Amino acid sequence: MREAGSWDEWVGVHRLMKDTEANRHRQPVFTKKRDEDKNLKSGHALQMKPRSSNVGRGRKRKNDSLNKETNGLQMENFVNIQIPPPLKKQLVDDCEFITHLGKLVKLPRTPNVDDILEKYCDYRSKKDG
């Protein structure tokens, strides 16, 4: 079970601190503050009454999650890659097999990454002339 208030989040470079001696001295202060905040939140969570089991959870919309992820990041940090439809279909199928069906391909495998990238480069060179 996940702790209350903990989640992964995409952050931009502007939110990261540089690795300097001064920032290393600040780190224990931030860690202590974070731990105190966790203790306050977890104490508050214990006082809340538990949810009944028949209450459903809301579904997140794709657009909402996309806006939150790209909200703090500049669009210039993204790279637009054009993927040929057969490769795109293969990647989507692989994602479905892994995430929904729990199937992983045994390695080594043919075609491997080098073969796929080589075929992609050939495809792009023929398409671009």
From TrEMBL:
Sequence ranges assigned to domain MRG in this UniProt record: 60-127
Domain of life, per lineage: Eukaryota
InterPro entries in the cross-refs: Chromo-like_dom_sf, MRG, MRG_C_sf, MRG_dom
Keyword rRNA processing on entry: no
Keyword Secreted assigned: no
One protein family per Pfam: MRG
Protein keywords: Chromatin regulator, Nucleus, Transcription, Transcription regulation
GO biological process: chromatin organization; regulation of DNA-templated transcription
GO cellular component term, pick one: nucleus
Intracellular or extracellular location(s): Nucleus
Residue span of region Disordered: 21-73
Broad class of the protein's primary localization: nucleus
Protein name, entry field: MRG domain-containing protein
Species of origin: Citrus sinensis
